[in-house]
Design goal:
Blueprint (H helix, E strand, L loop, with lengths): L7 E2 L5 H12 L15 E11 L24 E12 L8 E14 L10 E4 L9 E4 L4 H12 L3 E2 L2 E5 L11 E3 L7 E5 L3 E5 L2 E2 L5 H11 L10 E7 L2 E10 L5 E2 H10 L5 H21 L3 E3 L1 H21 L7 H16 L4 E3 L11 E3 L5 E3 L10 H4 L6 H17 L7 H17 L7 H22 L5 H10 L9
Parallel strand pairs: 1-2
Antiparallel strand pairs: 2-3, 3-4, 4-6, 4-12, 5-6, 7-8, 8-13, 9-10, 10-11, 11-14, 13-14, 15-18, 16-17, 18-19
Helix pairs in contact: 3-5, 4-9, 5-10, 6-7, 6-11, 7-11, 9-10, 9-11, 11-12
């Protein structure tokens, strides 16, 4: 079955149609919804599965239960939906429609929503099989979260849903769930300080690197990434649709971004942590190079890479006029890389994290660092996210993250970002024997590409942050990467 084929439906007929008007209002307000700024014009079901029948309805039918047959779950219904969201390409009446992103939804159904679930409200259904009921985001509710964990523990199969588990890892029943309420591009539930379930929201068919790479690293015995304990997928059309991943929860761990900001606020040096983080990154890269193929990037591959960078720069200059004075210097960062390739220089490429920054790193209470969230940049096509890349791509992302942290401090510390950047590269070299600073042309090209992306993002979503990447743009536009602006 392809994405456009007849949907797999085990839920009540007419379910999605009854939810349509509510989802049109609710979805665009979610942090993880990628189509903001364009109206939702409709939905196409890919799969709809009943996990718990709605109160008062017979399972899978949408018809009322017989008298006295409500059962112990009658006060709660639970539906799993994979839906493609139709939107115009641009927010203009009559514009052609986007093919549509697919989203994963867990819809809870109750006759009356308790006050504790008010933040989860989607709306009150007025038509179809759920007319008269209230629907809400079920991850806010303990019972639906328990249903997911139990299905993973028992390796269940429900309609097209498949629940897989590493047999070597035990999942105890009775772990109390709690939703992570911090803003994320996905949704996470912590179970009793033992596991964390990451439920992907924007779904694409195929092998998802957020499962693929941690599994590969676990086989290599790499301790820097929590090994997947279990995962949830959909069996649709002979290819996997990875929906969620359960991993050990690092209790007491500090998020790298929050830790950096705390140290900055106290005026403390972060160099030792940056160096340790560089070592952790290098250990992950080394393990990935052992586990998965490493390729050589020759002239033609570098031409495509440089062409992509130049194309993104031209689009960015068109979108953000503030970039125009720096465009020639930024362009030279990419053409310098192309010139080296033309002279016969080659580089190696391998699987990498793909979206590495301080927020993707955790420091345990014992001081050890872990890397998480191997999904890559969600806006990129899956095939692109799974392509081998020069490891410097991850390094450039982390260097830019130190710069962001330095600019986020209420009282900036002079030289803080530069010290962290140096310490991180030193730590990386201690493991690999290769200091990223010894390849300044490649490093400058990837830092420039990342800064250009940041300029466009901030101009569109957070204009107050635009000076942060623009300050990097001024530095990177200098033709000689070893000179200060």
């Amino acid at each position: 079955m392809s994405e456009a084929a007849t949907p797999f439906v085990t839920a009540a007929p007419g379910l999605l149609a009854s939810l349509d008007p509510l989802l049109r209002e609710w979805l665009p307000r979610q942090r993880w919804f990628a189509g903001k700024g364009r109206p939702v014009t409709g939905f196409s079901p890919i799969a709809a599965t009943e996990l718990l029948p709605a109160p008062g309805l017979r399972p899978g039918t949408g018809a009322p239960r017989e008298q006295g047959a409500a059962g112990p779950t009658a006060r709660l219904g639970l539906y799993h939906l994979l839906v493609r969201v139709r939107q115009p390409l641009v927010p203009v009446p009559g514009a052609p429609e986007h093919p549509g992103d697919c989203y994963q939804l867990l819809i809870g159904v109750r006759e009356v929503l308790p006050p504790r679930l008010a933040p989860a409200l989607i709306g009150h259904v007025t038509q179809g099989p759920l007319a008269g009921y209230t629907v809400y985001d079920a991850l806010y509710d303990a019972r639906p979260a328990e249903v997911l964990l139990e299905a993973l523990r028992t390796r269940d199969r429900i309609g097209p849903l498949r629940f897989h588990r590493d047999r070597a890892q035990e999942i105890r029943s009775g772990l109390v769930p709690r939703l992570v309420t911090a803003e994320q591009s996905n949704s996470s539930v912590i179970y009793g300080d033992t596991f964390i379930l990451k439920l992907l929201r924007r779904i694409v068919p195929g092998v998802n690197p957020d499962l693929e790479l941690p599994l590969a690293l676990a086989r290599e015995g790499c301790p820097r990434v929590p090994p997947p304990t279990a995962w949830m997928a959909a069996d649709l059309g002979g290819q996997p649709w990875v929906l969620a991943v359960l991993q050990p929860y690092v209790q007491g761990a500090a998020d790298g971004w929050e830790l950096a900001l705390r140290e900055l606020a106290k005026g403390e040096d972060f160099a030792a942590e940056a160096r340790a983080l560089g070592r952790a990154t290098a250990e992950v890269h080394t393990a990935l190079a052992r586990a998965l193929p490493v390729v050589t990037l020759g002239h033609s591959a570098l031409d495509r890479l440089v062409g992509g960078m130049l194309g993104r720069l031209e689009e960015a200059v068109h979108a953000v006029p503030a970039l125009r004075p720096y465009a020639p210097g930024l362009r030279s960062a990419f053409t310098a890389l192309g010139d080296l390739a033309a002279e016969g220089r080659t580089w190696t490429a391998q699987r990498v994290h793909g979206d590495l920054h301080l927020g993707q790193c955790l420091r345990a209470p014992d001081g050890e660092w872990s890397l998480i969230d191997f999904e890559g940049e969600p806006a990129r096509p899956l095939a692109e996210r799974r392509m081998p890349q020069p490891p410097v791509r991850d390094i450039a992302g982390m260097l830019r993250s130190f710069d962001y942290a330095a600019h986020s401090a209420d009282a900036p510390v002079s030289g803080w970002a530069e010290t962290c950047r140096s310490a991180y590269c030193t730590g990386y070299a201690e493991i690999t024997g290769r200091d990223p600073r010894t390849d300044p042309v490649m490093l400058r090209a990837y830092e420039t590409d990342k800064a250009v992306y940041e300029v466009v993002y901030e101009a569109r979503h957070r204009p107050g942050w635009l000076p942060v990447p623009l300050s990097a743009v001024r530095r990177l536009a200098v033709a000689d990467p070893t000179r200060s602006p």
